Amino acid sequence: MIGRLLHIGARATGLLGLAAYERLRRTPPDRSCLPRRARISLERLGPTFVKLGQTLSLRRDLLSERWLDELRRLQDNVEPFPGAEAQQAVEEAFGQSTEQLFAAFETKPLAAASIAQVHRARLHNGRAVIVKIRRPAIRARIDRDMRALVATTRLLIIIAPRLERLQPLRLVDEIWANLRKETDFRQEARNIRRFNEAFRDWPSLSIPNVIDDLQTETVLVQEMSGGTGIADPSVDGPRLAEVLVDAYLNQFFVIGLFHGDPHPGNLFVTPDGRLCFHDFGLTGYLDNRTRRALAFFLQAFVSGDPLWLLDSAIDLGLLHEVDDRSAFIRGIDEILADYASLPLKDWSLAEAVLRVAHLGPDDKVMLPQNLVVLIRTLFLIESALRTLDPDLKILDTLLARGRDVMKGLLSDETGNGGRARLKAEAALAAHDLPGVLAAFLRRLQSDGFHPAIIVRHEGLETIEAHLDRTGNRLALALVTLGLYIAASLLMLHSAGPRVLGNVPLLALLGYLLALGLSFRLVGAVGRSGRL
């Protein structure tokens, strides 16, 4: 541990020294040696740090494009581990020899990565499969290396306090947690099964499934499929672009779980013309609120509504709520003006999301992992779509094909930002209103009503009494509204005993009580002589 800590510390100190030297010499960013030296250092520190660099290559919110380009080169520089070790790992995982498990097993790996490598195999029933095998002892090595990295990071913060504003310790902890998830192939198997279930009835899509009873924490056996790359001129690009759009609209707005790495190596076309997804090690998750915010962000962007775009960005988590919104509005206006001068086919939702995120101050909390994966995924989707169909109007297609999939979250009217926002927000408010009122009535029943504003000052007794009456009337109005809604729901569902032929008794009592409270409220307002 001490030796590893010294090795990591020496590399980090060397990079910090180079950064200080280039800063003193005012080296232009495009001539800096720091990104290349950092990538080389990560490679020499081993698989854990290769994976660390690959994870950092997702962070468009933190790093410049030059850094990202250099870190992406880490994808192709991982040495495989010996085939004999792979065979032994499979036998230990399943408690059987490879001869018992497979009719054939190739010890030469098909591909190698920092966490695992893949081998071809064939089951006894003749089915071709791939076997994904975790690197031996990689979990223990990750934990050891990450503990050393945490210690080194703390030391660097003491040496260079300005680093703390980038929240490096939080970033390291987040990467550590994600690395531990990626080394458990049972989670990947669950993701694959979930995608297969969701797209079972899609004839245009193919997702190789997991082989039953052949997956553990360290080994995953999956159906093998082959085909043509999406850049091949023989594929039907425009049709496949529509398939890709539909698939991701369902992932974003229906399933809430999406494939986070749709680069050309993980997308290809099967011989029968289906679009095939591979490698579900990196996935993203969107909860209901995030799905809504993303849908609203998309429509606000196309509608050119800066206020709506700002609210959607805050709901999405790209920005944090502030008292002075004027600077954000100006920044969003500039972004929208830039896009207004471009042809629609050149608009980029991914770039717009990233540019809006960069409007926030540098000292704000960094983006959460789900948004980091989302932004990267959007860039990769747009790149794949332009490969398949260079003339595709991506945003126009998203809205046109997404109206049914988003189930009313998006409006049909994209040309009028104000009306589009009103319809979308009103529909959402109407959907949530019964739950909000029910929660309010529950609190009112438990705690009683407490006026939100209490004013006490000598000589202002009249104002205090007026505010008290106003609060009571407001409470009475809300209770009355709640009773009308509750009675209507009871009437709709015909709940409880019936009277007067076929009228639900509970609904009738609710209406009568609400009507009585309405008369009382109207009488009180009438006696005061004011509305």
UniProtKB/TrEMBL annotation:
This protein's source sits in the domain of life called: Bacteria
Which keywords accompany this UniProt record?
Membrane, Transmembrane, Transmembrane helix, Ubiquinone
Classification via CDD domains: ABC1_ADCK3-like
The record's listing under InterPro entries reads: ABC1_dom (IPR004147), Kinase-like_dom_sf (IPR011009), UbiB_kinase (IPR050154)
Membrane-spanning residues? 474-493, 505-525
Q: Cite the ABC1 atypical kinase-like domain residue spans from the record.
A: 73-305
Please name the Pfam families in this protein's record: ABC1
Would I find Transmembrane among this entry's keywords? Answer: yes
Which family is this sequence assigned to?
Belongs to the protein kinase superfamily. ADCK protein kinase family.
From the Swiss-Prot or TrEMBL record, give the protein name: Ubiquinone biosynthesis protein
